[in-house]
Design goal:
The protein is mainly α. It contains three helices and no strands.
Length: 104
């Protein structure tokens, strides 16, 4: 991720922020990312390495990827909040530097 957010990223992050930190971490990252990744990984492993019980493999993948999704969510939340707060801190300074369109 780059240091600054563009307008599209800012609007998207503001919408995500309104849902809340726990919603982002548990729903978007742990549940959605974790379960989708577990399904895809289990299917690919079953095709590539068809030994063992697919359901056992899937349940272990769910546990691992949901846990990984939780930590991914925490890291992403912190990184995006840091970028968003940097934007907020810079925004008033940029506005002060820009000449007012009415004054010209």
């Amino acid at each position: 991720m780059s240091g600054m957010m563009n307008d599209k990223q800012i609007k998207r992050w503001e919408k995500i922020r309104r849902s809340g930190r726990l919603s982002f971490i548990w729903i978007r990252c742990a549940t959605v990312w974790g379960l989708l990744t577990a399904i895809l990984w289990s299917a690919m492993m079953q095709v590539g390495y068809p030994q063992g019980n697919i359901w056992r493999r899937f349940l272990l993948a769910c546990a691992g990827f949901v846990l990984g999704g939780y930590f991914l969510g925490v890291i992403l939340w912190r990184a995006n909040e840091k970028r968003y707060k940097a934007f907020q801190d810079q925004s008033p300074r940029e506005q002060a530097r820009k000449p007012d369109a009415l004054e010209s």
